[in-house]
Amino acid sequence: MKKLTWLLLVICTLPSLALGKQIAIVIDDIGNHQRDLNTLNLPGKISYSILPHTPYSQIFARLASKANKELLLHIPMQALDTSKALGPGALTSDMSKEQLQYTLGNALASLPQVKGVNNHMGSALTQESLPMKWTMEMLKKRNLYFLDSRTTGLSQAQNVANLYGVENVGRHVFLDNILNEQQLQFRFNELKYKADRYNFAIAIAHPHPETIEFLQRMLPELEQQGFELVPLSQLVERKYIQLAQAENKGVSAR
Questions:
Q1: What percent of the chain has pLDDT over 90?
Q2: Across residues 211-221, what is the average pLDDT?
Q3: Helix or strand holding residue 177 (H, E)
Q4: pLDDT in tens, 56-109
Q5: What residue stretch is flagged as signal peptide (predicted)?
Q6: Which residues contact 78 (CB under 8 A, 6 or more apart)?
Q7: Are 230 and 24 in contact (CB under 8 A)?
Q8: DSSP-assigned states of every residue in 212-231
Q9: Can you say whether residue 105 is alpha, beta or left, with left for phi > 0 and alpha for psi between -120 and 50 degrees?
């Protein structure tokens, strides 16, 4: 109730959340390679999602924080394809509640700068309600938001997040699943189309040299085209302010 009251109070002071075509771009899979540090040179308010316990996770987090960049924890979760290596700090379906929350807690403790969490892989685990409940219980206690990477159309993550009162959003576009100029441009245009239609859109990309070079060229044009590049948390706030507005209108109508 206190949070809803606060949201209603700030509605009038945050007009940019109610108007305008806003885009958030999250670069995830950060931490395994030194070249990932180069992504910090991207212009604008890019958000970054860091894999836990990786060689460059700590230095990236420090440099990003100094540059006032928004950070997420990119937590590995079990995939349907069991041949894929999840990496350190992974959450799997054979874990007990204590094991899962201990593993997630360690990952969060290693990156205290993060404002939110999104799943790395996770096409299997995000379909399971019980592990998602244990995950959201942790995020609620730490007041962190959840970005569903939507690696499966059967994900239960956002449904469970709603049950636990965890603020959440879902990815709209993967920019670089197919890594060539034509497909990058196609997905970037799709991102702008969704932002134009819905007034906001969220993309996930990866620290491939081809992706970074493409974004270096494309990002400066967004403002000229009428789009605002914002940190992901701003779109999370926007979503819940709009929900509060809708609820307030419903109360007034009654």
A1: 85
A2: 97
A3: none
A4: 999 999 999 999 999 999 999 999 998 889 999 999 999 999 999 999 999 999
A5: 1-18
A6: 86, 90, 91, 92, 93, 121, 122, 124, 125
A7: yes
A8: HHHHHHHHHHHHHTTEEE--
A9: alpha
| Tokens encoding 76 | 């590995």
What six digits make up the tokens of 77? 């979760």
Handedness of CA 120, 123, 127, 131 (dihedral sign): negative
**H-state helical runs in 111-253:** 129-142, 157-164, 181-198, 209-224, 232-253
The rounded distance, in Å, linking the Cα atoms of 221 and 241 is 28
Give φ, ψ of 75 to 5 degrees: -85, 125
Structure tokens at 40: 């910090």
Which tokens is 50 given? 């860091």
Place of tokens 């201990």: 102
What is the structure's pLDDT at 3? Answer: 53
In terms of C-beta distances under 8 Å and separation of at least 24 residues, what long-range contacts does 245-250 make, across chains too? Answer: 245/8, 245/11, 245/18, 247/4, 248/8
Residue 118 has pLDDT above 80, yes or no: yes
pTM of the model: 0.90
Q: What is the pLDDT of residue 245?
A: 85
24 forms beta bridges with 202
Residues with Cβ within 8 Å of 47's Cβ and at least 6 positions away in sequence, in order, are 24, 25, 26, 27, 69, 70, 71, 72, 231, 232, 233
- 98, 91 in Cβ contact below 8 A? no
Q: How does strand 21-30 pair with strand 200-205?
A: parallel
User: Is pLDDT above 80 for 165?
Assistant: yes
Give the Cα separation of 92 and 96 in Å (integer).
9
What sign results for the dihedral spanned by CA atoms 212, 190, 116, 156?
negative
Q: Contact, 2 vs 235, CB < 8 A?
A: no
